[in-house]
Amino acid sequence: MSATIYQQIQQFYDASSSLWEETWGEHMHHGFYGVDGKEEKDRKQAQIDLIEEILSWSGVEQAENILDVGCGIGGSSLYLAAKLCAKATGITLSPVQAKRANQRARELGFAARTNFQVADAQEMPFADNSYDLVWSLESGEHMPDKTKFIQECYRVLKPGGKLIVVTWCHRPTDRLPLTAQEEKHLAEIYRVYHLPYVISLPEYEAIARNISLNNIRTADWSQAVAPFWDLVIQSAFNPKAIFGLLTSGWDTIQAALSLGLMSEGYKSGLIRFGLLYGTK
């Protein structure tokens, strides 16, 4: 991974993770608001519902050894470890996140079967065929080389194991290339959230087919998760969050001021929420 983008991502999450946890809790990902996106629900419940809906969609009912690629502060990892009675390892670029995830694991009594560490998802420090479930929830968008990222996930997956990648995408471009305005919109998102680039869901599927992933399925859940960003915008305007923003640095403030980029992207159809599933 490029040293520059590595450092940018690390610094962004080092600075912003505690504020996010204080405002939203341990789950650093979208919520699920019904297939049509019209269900009103508690925001934390919506985030848990997203995990449950992904498990249901992918048919995952059990696992022994889980790898969470881009684990944040361990929200998904610890939830999956508890639900599936599994061991879980999480990797992140942020030392702050890894430390907090391990702290949360101790607080919840999961320290013996979970581990969180700083590692590059494109060069993972794990042996081939190590995990029966590789889970990546909203981290693919940060990967400078999407092919290498999927290849690494495949490499550490056990034969018969399951891979689930849920990530930000842009709309498919097979019929209509991205317009100059869309490219500009994406460039602003990349700048604010420290993303090298995103690709379309069909492009992820092509990568998966090229590495011989089996039983491949994809889904676009953009409509189901789109309300999330308007709710994040609302939450940013309470006094506690505003104070947290002012003390967390310019990167975090800039990201908060630019939340509308994602909301507008969903509404225009430019931003998509893609799911990829396959087995080894």
TrEMBL record:
This protein's UniProt keywords: Methyltransferase, S-adenosyl-L-methionine, Transferase
Gene Ontology molecular function: S-adenosylmethionine-dependent methyltransferase activity
SAM motif I: annotated span: 66-75
Chain positions covered by the region annotation SAM motif II: 129-137
Region (SAM motif III) residue spans: 156-165
Transferase found in the keyword field: yes
Domain Methyltransferase type: 67-165
Keyword S-adenosyl-L-methionine applies: yes
Pfam families per record: Methyltransf_11
One GO biological process term: methylation
InterPro entries: Erg6_SMT_methyltransf (IPR050447), Methyltransf_11 (IPR013216), PiNMT-like (IPR025774), SAM-dependent_MTases_sf (IPR029063)
PROSITE patterns for this protein: SAM_GTMT
CDD domains: AdoMet_MTases
Family recorded in the similarity comment: Belongs to the class I-like SAM-binding methyltransferase superfamily. gTMT family.
Protein name as annotated: Delta(24)-sterol C-methyltransferase
Organism expressing this protein natively: Mastigocoleus testarum BC008
